[in-house]
Amino acid sequence: MKLNGTMRINENGHLEIGGCDTVELAWEFGTPLYVLDEMCFRQNCRDYNQAFSEKYRAGVIYAGKTLLNLAVCRMVDEEGLGLDVVSGGELFTALKAGFPAERIYFHGNNKSPAELAMAIESGVGCFMVDNICELELLSRLAGEYGRVPGVILRVTPGIEAHTHEYIKTGQIDSKFGLVIENGQALGGVKRSLELENLHFKGLHCHIGSQIFELESYRHAAGVMMDFVNQLHEETGARVEELDLGGGLGVYYTEGDQPRAVKEYADVLAGAVQEKAEQYRIQAPRLLVEPGRSISGPAGTTLYTVGAIKEIPGIRKYLAVDGGMGDNPRPALYQARYEAYLAGKMECPPAELVSVAGKCCESGDMLIWDAELPEAEPGDILAVSCTGAYNYSMSMNYNRLPRPAMILVRGGCAELITRRESYEDLIMNDLIPERLTKKANT
Ligand code: LLP
Asked: Which helix (H) or strand (E) holds 414?
């Protein structure tokens, strides 16, 4: 059991988050329910600020794809981080929340002309440009608006990081970024230097997500700095900023051993500095884009246990009132999670059960083989570390409404995304005239 952030077991033997009893939260707000621990989220932002910004003057850009709504934007703004958005929808959310446009970084491998125009118009600070098509398009649009946006070019350093290993690959085969090895990245930099409407600021890479091995980062930073030096020698271009992406792993289940943010910072900054000294060039300013390691541990999902079914000699299924609709990660990536019975935190584990979702899909299993106290219908099941890539990847399969999200802190719980209603589900449905009567009968 790993209790994240402000999680603790209270005097009733219940799981408490942000000073709120989760059994009471479930009763008050209904389930499934996303619970976001404000102090945990903010502390994770502060750990990054301390380790990167204060120590190395590096920039920390929160990856909004992990979890984004208006309240999250406000917290990220208050904590002073930048914000990485990857779509018009994420950008719209950030702007509506009043997030300062100059601290927004626009990512994505196929930004549409409309998305780019929206970003230029609203004064987005920097564009992470993925390919030459985008470079040309951005330059043209920037010219039309009379702006000169900052550009960071995404490149692939040829390192593929895995959870427990890293390997050098035929990096040419990626939908993201321009390949260093075959000269495309160099061509991209040269082109961005030629385009008058763009201000070339630097380079970006992202080697993967849920990474524990800092060696992969040291390697990536080194390859990127080799390229920085090559650019310097061949084009005279100065790389002001070097963005090494996100990816730091978090604890989901036993065996996951996350590295401390400050260790991560020391490795990245150290590798950049070392190469800068070796090449006798000025070290670029470091940027990082953490997502999961900020939002992941701050989230917990509460479910109500419904049907319980035992297949003698085979397995016992606990079905809950959510599943792949609110957390598609187990179905998509065989991701593993830990769960607790929120009202029975002091009861010893009594049985091995598997937690099933309620979608019409055999693959809708949240957890295989969890050791839990004996469960009964009506118990509240808490799945931890669901802050990242859960709400942001949620869907309406089987027309299940998306859960609500609440922000908890100091014993106070506030709704930050309301639960979808059945009315919301049909909000965009239209009935052609000729079908109207039928639908009404
Ligand atoms: N920067 C870039 C360019 C990225 O592509 C990503 C994640 C991040 C930063 C943030 O990485 P993080 O710190 O969260 O690892 N849906 C998958 C993960 C996809 C990662 C997408 N990119 C999952 O649920 O595991």
From this structure: strand 412-417
Tell me the torsion sign for CA atoms 244, 89, 122, 142: positive
DSSP secondary structure, 243-261, as one string:
E----B----STT--PPPH
Q: Is 205 a catalytic residue?
A: no
Residue 42 CB less than 6 A away from ligand 1: no
CB atoms within 10 A of CB 337: 19
Cα of 143 from ligand 1 centre, angstroms = 32
Asked if residues 424 and 399 have their Cβ atoms less than 8 Å apart, the reply is no
Select from 130, 289, 333, 394 the residue to mutate for testing ligand 1; criterion: most ligand atoms less than 8 Å from CB. Answer: 289
CA atoms within 13 A on the CB side of 389: 16
Q: Which residues contact 170 (CB under 8 A, 6 or more apart)?
A: none
Residue 294, judged by CB atoms within 10 A of its CB (0-12, 13-18, 19+), counts as buried
Compute the distance from residue 66 Cα to the ligand 1 centre, in Å: 7
Between 328 and 439, the more confident residue is 328
Contact 42, 75 (CB under 8 A): yes
Query: Whole-model pTM above 0.85?
Result: yes
Q: Which tokens belong to 371?
A: 């050791």
Ligand 1 site, residue 107, Cβ cutoff 6 A? yes
Q: How far apart are CA 238 and CA 383, in angstroms?
A: 47
Q: What secondary structure does DSSP assign to 8-60, as a single string?
A: EE-TTS-EEETTEEHHHHHHHH-SSEEEEEHHHHHHHHHHHIIIIIIHH--EE
pLDDT in tens, 359-394: 999 999 999 999 999 999 999 999 999 999 999 999
List 40, 73, 360, 412, catalytic entry:
360
Atom of ligand 1 nearest to the CA of 295: 14
